[in-house]
Amino acid sequence: MTLTKLLEGSRSNTVAFRGRSRLPTIIYLYEARRGEFNNPNLVFRGLSRLVGRGFGADWRLLGADVHSLFSVQLLRAVAASMVVLHHIQLNVAQGLGLPNALPNLVVGSAGVDIFFVISGFVMVVSSDRLFGQPGATKLFLLRRLIRIVPLYWTATSIYVLSTGGGYTLAHTLASYFFIPYARPDGVVQPIHVVGWTLNYEMFFYLLFALVIALPRRLAVGAVIAGLGATVLIGRATPQAMDALTFWSQPVILNFVFGLGIGLAYKEGLRLPWPIAAVLIGTAAFLYAEQIGDDFPLPWERIRVYGFPAALLLTGATLGTFGPPPQWLRPLGSLGDSSYALYLLHTVVLWGCRMIAIKLALPVSAAPWAYVLAVMLASVIVAGIAHRLLDHPVTQWLRERLVVPSGTSKAIGAPVQDAQS
Question: Helix crossing, 169-176 with 136-162: angle to 10°?
């Protein structure tokens, strides 16, 4: 029996046995190859079993995809942690009235730029079987909505209920349906404050969906042109409606970086690991240089946040590194729950602040201990939410909506999604 036949014959067992120790090694690898798994540790467990059973040559057929997928998960973990760290610092400075307890960590907001670059990359890579296919637009949008909506609506509802519904109907509906809308104070922001990034993500997904029926290169080029045109139209019409003004901000050009890297990846471009390591190190240095700086201007943001994010993803995904060291692999799980971490950490921060005030904790005496405690609490809550809510709900919806009975799994099979 050929490797392909063995893989195809084992496909029906993946749902029933995914994540169990008895799962055949070849299924671990098949799940990784197709991007249909949520725990990168399974991949490396499978790889080690293959090597131990004398199939050492086979893993090289999968190694680049396995490494790149793990790298994306690792960068998601980094991006989400950067945003949380930034918000903890703001929480200590403003919420606890300790502006000098911690350095200015605004650079942590660059985690959003990293997310956007990752999103562009993942949309190209994960949609490979959709390009040029009939019905691709509907299927792509359905997959994106299944991935994004459940947890975001849950988090938004927490905010709506916690305030007793003190929002206008228009603002509430706009928040739930990813439409930029100005609050009474004029700030264009949804009810759940971090949801502004999802307004950009959904706009990007819509552009992508409109052209996904084209061949891959044409589709990517069309999305890049659409994003560029949006920015130019926004600059030419400064008095446009709130939504257009919002969507036309230069920050959406971060998706262009990711699209280009994703296309290069699918075209087979790879970098020697020393060059990739230099790119990653350069990005880390550029971010570290900005500790203590204030928010950059919109166009400057692309240079100081977006460009290093592109360097980071280029090195991480195109570099020919071997399997990551054992100590790094648990971070893949944090990457899995990064979407939950991003959406729910603000609730955890609020709770920790209330506890610190109520108990009169000496945060000023040990601010970094407080940072560590809040970060740990955020990670734990995110992990629980991912395991008990986010992942089960999205899997349930995918199994019933994305690959219904009679639908071709060659097109409809779920893939590893971008998280924003």
Answer: 140
Read off the tokens for 127.
Answer: 């949609």
* pTM across the whole model: 0.83
Residues 405, 329: Cα–Cα separation, whole Å: 36
The three-state DSSP-derived secondary structure of 180-236 is CCECCCCCECCCCHHHHHHHHHHHHHHHHHHHCCCCHHHHHHHHHHHHHHHHHHHHH
The helix/strand/coil state of 401 is helix
φ and ψ at 267, to 5 degrees? -80, 0
Instruction: Find tokens 């922001």 and name the residue.
Output: 189
The region that residue 322 occupies, defined by phi over 0 for left and psi between -120 and 50 for alpha, beta otherwise, is: beta
pLDDT band at 69 (very low <50, low <70, confident <90, very high): confident
Distance CA 227, CA 122 (A): 17
C-alpha dist (Å) from residue 107 to 3, 287, 294: 47, 7, 8
Asked if 259 and 123 count as a contact pair (C-beta separation under 8 A), the reply is: yes
Place of tokens 């190190």: 281
| Start-end of H helices in 303-406 | 307-318, 331-336, 338-358, 367-385, 391-397
**Taking all residues of the chain, what is their mean pLDDT, rounded to a whole number?**
83
Element (H or E) spanning 353, and its range?
A: helix 338-358
Please, which residues have CB within 8 angstroms of residue 109's CB and are 6 or more apart in sequence? 82, 83, 86, 295, 305
pLDDT band at 403 (very low <50, low <70, confident <90, very high): low
Lowest average pLDDT, out of 15-19, 109-113, 194-198, 251-255, goes to 15-19
> Quick one: 416 exposed, middle or buried, by C-beta within 10 A (0-12, 13-18, 19+)?
buried
How far, in Å, CA of 128 to CA of 121, rounded?
11
Is 78 in contact with 111 (CB distance < 8 Å)? yes
CA angle 394, 173, 383 (to 5 degrees): 30
Q: Give tens-digit pLDDT for 295-309.
A: 999 999 999 999 999
What amino acid is encoded at 93 in this protein? Answer: A
Query: What residue has token string 């950067």?
Result: 82
d(CA 16, CA 394): 16
In 3D, which of 200, 204, 220 has the Cα closest to residue 298? 200
